[in-house]
Amino acid sequence: MSTMTLPDTETRPESTDSTDDDAPKMFHYVRKNKIAESAVMGTHVVALCGEVFPVTKSAKPGSPVCPACKEIYEGLRPGPEE
After folding, report:
1. What's the pTM?
2. In sequence order, which residues have a C-beta less than 8 Å from that of residue 7 and are 6 or more positions away?
3. CB-hemisphere CA count at 13 Å for 76?
4. Looking at residues 50-74, what average pLDDT do you find?
5. 11-37 burial code (b ≥16 CB/10 A, e <16)
6. 54 φ, ψ to 5°?
7. Which are the contacts of 73, defined by CB distance < 8 A and separation ≥ 6?
8. What residues form DSSP beta bridges with 45?
9. pLDDT (0 to 100) of residue 62
10. Mean pLDDT rounded to a whole number for the chain
11. 55-82-44 Cα angle (round to 5)
12. CA distances in angstroms from 75 to 13, 21, 57, 63, 72, listed in the order given
């Protein structure tokens, strides 16, 4: 009886491009107090437009914004200053 060692094989799918495939195409407006909770706990948030998703990325200045969220946000009354 003989034994042999098999070579390591990569089991993750290969990415054909260098961009992050799970990067959002656009960002949504979400209640501020729900963002950290979602990022830590993995809970889903509801955007102003109704989209439901877990927070996985934070928007950077100049990131594309959901047009429906933007329209709803601009129509809201200003709240109390924090």
Report:
1. 0.61
2. none
3. 13
4. 90
5. eeeeeeeeeeeeeeeebbbbeeeeeee
6. -85, 145
7. 29, 48
8. 53
9. 87
10. 79
11. 15
12. 44, 33, 25, 21, 5
